[in-house]
Write a structure and sequence with these properties.
438 residues; mainly alpha; globular
Length: 438
């Protein structure tokens, strides 16, 4: 048996995972860029997409934690060569996921105005955010279905099919964004912010259909739901529940960031929207290598190969750091053009430029945090991940934000708090992983 997983083997999983991983943030970043360049009320529309997009991301992250749980369980059974023992599991958890997401969609649509008022939104920004959300959230069950299927493929050590689905979805979304937001003369009337939401929903539906086809034809599992529940359903739901709590802590930090930014004024939430969309895009970009930890560590745990797991983590950190430095260098070279992609408003651009350097400099910290986050997901150490996020949020992020806000640092306060947050996440997981493998 080889002492370590080769660079070629890692990239065979990582590169398709990178492409697949950026699909959802690419939907949001495309909406942000298109909406930010509207001919009227562009700043308000940009702010609204930022608020609604932040809440949607929160829902996606909370509900999509079963993707990591599915991947961890499937990969462990793959490593132990016992996939037949969980034959009924994917269909059961996918059904639970879709039913739950439909219920959450209905509940949030009913209370959407109150929800966005909690983000300090009012007036035109509130109207736009509500309108955008009511349409865009229709895609929630379809995205959760797609994410669940991606989790199965990851567990089977296959990132190629998720990549294909993600490419098709991303390209379709970009084309539809231009067509529906700005219109096509003589064919489609301009739909403003609603057009961006419709474009995203159509892309999500198409991705779900493609996921269904590939799941049926390219996995050893069936989508036929049947009782009794699989023996692993309890563990998988337990993993998912702990990851839900983790995601709640994570999204509490994001909620505070957007709420404070909205409270500072329209130009601040617009600038925060741009900065956060770039941060998210880079996060999912680097998450490609981190996902190899998620995909492979479960299999190595099933094989009880801890040495290879340790060597894999070192290589993944090294590769992800290289990516973070490349991304950072590109950002510093094209510092000004990055902002003008999203808006031409001078006040918003100046506010964005004032904090963009913090977003760039924290990328190496993110690299370490994301790698070990992925490894612990693969190991099904959901309690560790839950506790880490709780500590990072309530001992790191929240106190830092409150102190920096007291000194009226505004967006600086938010991004300093994010940096401290990521330092906590990276440091805690690094120490705990070293203890686990030694």
């Amino acid at each position: 048996m080889d002492a370590k997983i080769s660079f070629k083997q890692i990239n065979k999983l990582a590169i398709p995972a990178i492409i697949a991983g950026i699909a959802e943030p690419l939907l949001s970043i495309t909406d942000t860029a298109i909406v930010g360049n509207l001919e009227f009320n562009a700043v308000e529309a940009l702010a609204a997409v930022g608020i609604a997009g932040s809440f949607l991301s929160a829902l996606f992250w909370i509900l999509a934690q079963t993707r990591s749980a599915i991947s961890a369980v499937v990969s462990q059974y793959l490593g132990a060569k016992k996939l037949d023992e969980i034959a009924s599991l994917p269909a059961q958890i996918i059904a639970i996921n879709v039913i739950l997401s439909i219920g959450i969609y209905v509940l949030t649509v009913v209370f959407v105005t109150a929800i966005f008022k909690m983000y300090n939104a009012d007036g035109l920004i509130l109207d736009y955010a509500v309108s955008y959300y009511k349409i865009r959230a229709i895609g929630l069950p379809f995205t959760l279905f797609t994410f669940s299927v991606f989790g199965v493929f990851r567990g089977l050590q296959n990132t190629y099919y998720p990549m294909l689905i993600s490419i098709i979805g991303a390209v379709l979304n970009v084309v539809l964004d231009f067509a529906l937001v700005f219109g096509i003369e003589g064919l489609v009337a301009p739909m403003h912010i609603e057009g961006a939401a419709i474009a995203s929903v159509i892309a999500q539906v198409v991705m779900a259909i493609l996921s269904l086809i590939l799941f049926i034809n390219k996995t050893p599992f069936s989508l036929k739901f049947k009782f009794p529940f699989n023996k692993e359903i309890k563990r998988l739901l337990g993993l998912s529940l702990n990851l839900f709590v983790r995601a709640l802590a994570l999204n509490f930090a994001l909620y505070l960031a957007n709420s404070y930014a909205t409270g500072y004024g329209t130009k601040y939430i617009a600038a925060q929207t741009i900065a956060f969309q770039i941060w998210m895009f880079f996060a999912f970009f680097m998450d490609g290598y981190a996902s190899v930890g998620n995909i492979v560590s479960g299999r190595l745990l099933g094989e009880k190969n801890y040495k290879k797991m340790f060597l894999l983590s070192k290589d993944l950190v090294k590769y992800t750091l290289v990516i973070s430095f490349i991304l950072g260098t590109v950002c510093f070279i094209f510092y000004k053009p990055f902002g003008t992609i999203f808006t031409k408003d001078v006040a918003v651009l100046n506010t964005f430029y004032s904090i963009f350097w913090i977003v760039i400099l924290m990328q190496p910290i993110n690299a370490v945090a994301f790698v070990y986050d992925g490894v612990f997901k693969g190991l099904a150490k959901a309690v560790t991940l839950r506790n880490t996020l709780i500590v990072a949020t309530f001992i790191g992020f929240v106190p830092t934000l409150l102190i920096a806000d007291f000194f009226n640092l505004k967006l600086y306060a938010i991004w300093i708090a994010f940096t401290v947050w990521m330092l906590f996440r990276a440091g805690i997981l690094l120490v705990l992983f070293r203890k686990f493998v030694n």
